[in-house]
Design goal:
188 residues
């Protein structure tokens, strides 16, 4: 005779723990594989270019885009005609007046400054590689107050990356692994 109900085997605590341990091992294996294929991006000696909009309003961001389109050919020719950082710096110094003039014409009466200085660039992904956060030689075009979201622009190709607000002298947070913290919380 068949029974009217199914007999279920009660789940034991060991099977739950085994599932947790298997999950952790899979995460560690994935992290190990990613670490094997990780290659930091090689940083070039050529400077970075940055354009700071006056604010986050649509109009100010459009002004920034217009200025970027106007100065991109000038910067591209300076980069293409330079084989060393010194040549690049000389060409950019020669072109800085023209860049400032073009930007001022598009800036709708806002003041424009163009500076060459060392600036902190946050980590960014370039293809499959990662460029580490560091202080790089930079050319910074500031429109008005420069309070808009900051974008580091490679300009070649025309790709921008959002910047995190940071200063050169910041305290580093301790590195923690969420899996390890989770395991410690289970036994605490």
């Amino acid at each position: 005779m068949l029974q009217d109900y199914t007999i279920e085997k009660p789940q034991t605590k060991t099977s739950k723990w085994m599932a947790i341990i298997e999950f952790i091992l899979v995460l560690l294996a994935i992290q190990g594989v990613l670490f094997l294929f990780y290659q930091p991006a090689e940083t070039s000696e050529m400077p970075q270019f940055r354009i700071l909009a006056n604010s986050n309003t649509v109009d100010d961001q459009q002004v920034k885009q217009k200025i970027q389109q106007q100065i991109e050919p000038i910067i591209a020719s300076a980069v293409n005609e330079s084989s060393t950082p010194e040549q690049m710096q000389n060409r950019m110094e020669a072109a800085s007046a023209e860049i400032t003039q073009l930007a001022t014409l598009q800036a709708n009466g806002l003041p424009v400054t163009f500076e060459h200085k060392a600036a902190l660039i946050p980590a960014k992904r370039i293809g499959f590689a990662i460029q580490k956060q560091d202080v790089y030689e930079s050319y910074i075009l500031k429109i008005g107050n420069g309070k808009g979201d900051n974008w580091w622009c490679a300009l070649f190709p025309n790709v921008c990356y959002p910047e995190e607000t940071a200063t050169v002298e910041t305290e580093e947070e301790p590195v923690t692994f969420f899996v390890w913290e989770w395991i410690k919380s289970l036994f605490a």
